[in-house]
Write a structure and sequence with these properties.
The protein is mostly helical.
């Protein structure tokens, strides 16, 4: 039996501890305040019963004092009646009033004893009532302190939550920008660099090839032909040639002479149409 009790105690402690760890702090604070309010209410009810008992004793004491006073007055009146009967020589009346006075005296003695007992009880009840009042006042102060402590704890809890949120935000900001939805910035930069490298390599290969050189020569010859056509139009319109105009024909012919695969024959025809101007002669 003891073994199962210990096992049950261990299980209960484990379950209670787990629940307390998972319970929110504000819930625990409210539970503590609810328990304190419940204890304060119970203490006030007990104090009220103590004070009510003192009030009840006071009422009984007042009634007992009145009964004792009545018994004393009646006993005195019976003695006076017995004395009057004795004066008149009425023995029967004397005996009757004497027995009545004795009965009232016994009642008076009982009432006086009851008064003394009630006085003792009332004194004790009064002390208990005053002590209960002090306990109620002390517990009320304690409850006020707990209420202030509750507000303080709730404020600290809110500050802790805000600080935790700030810490989480800072932690997220300190992490590198990575996303599962697409490539990272580093990967994008590497991709752009690869494309730039490929484009530069293609341009370098194009400029170093024979086909590229031929295209450059053809482009230069087209520029020479276009310049010759413009010079002819200026001559027909009677416009002077621009002072800074320098034909690109020599450079084109020089580039063509450096390439063995290009024939210079097609260049002669546009070069013959160029007018003879200062600094604008076609190459021979």
């Amino acid at each position: 039996m003891g073994f199962f009790s210990r096992v049950w105690g261990y299980i209960k402690a484990a379950v209670t501890g787990g629940v307390e760890r998972r319970m929110k702090p504000e819930v625990q604070i409210e539970q503590a305040m609810s328990e304190a309010r419940k204890q304060d209410l119970e203490l006030r009810n007990q104090a009220a019963r103590v004070i009510a008992h003192r009030t009840e004793l006071q009422m009984k004491l007042d009634r007992a004092i009145d009964d004792a006073a009545d018994a004393r007055a009646q006993a005195g009146q019976a003695l006076k009646m017995a004395d009057g009967a004795s004066t008149s020589g009425d023995a029967a009346e004397v005996d009757r009033w004497t027995r009545t006075a004795q009965a009232l005296a016994m009642k008076l003695e009982t009432s006086e004893q009851l008064v003394e007992g009630l006085k003792t009880q009332y004194a004790t009840a009064t002390e208990q009532a005053e002590l209960a009042k002090e306990q109620v006042n002390a517990n009320a102060l304690r409850l006020q302190e707990l209420s202030a402590k509750r507000m303080e704890l709730l404020g600290k809890l809110e500050q802790a939550r805000m600080q935790e949120q700030v810490n989480q935000t800072l932690e997220q900001l300190s992490k590198p920008m990575e996303s599962n939805a697409g490539p990272t910035l580093g990967e994008i930069e590497d991709k752009i660099n690869r494309r730039m490298a490929n484009a530069s390599a293609r341009a370098e290969l194009e400029s170093a090839s024979i086909e590229g050189a031929q295209r450059d020569v053809e482009r230069s010859l087209q520029q020479v032909s276009a310049q010759a056509r413009l010079d002819k139009l200026r001559e027909e319109l009677g416009l002077p040639a621009p002072a800074s105009a320098t034909p690109a024909a020599p450079a084109a012919v020089e580039s063509a002479s450096e390439q063995p695969a290009v024939a210079p024959a097609p260049v002669e025809e546009p070069a013959d149409e160029q007018p003879a101007q200062g600094g604008g002669s076609a190459p021979a």
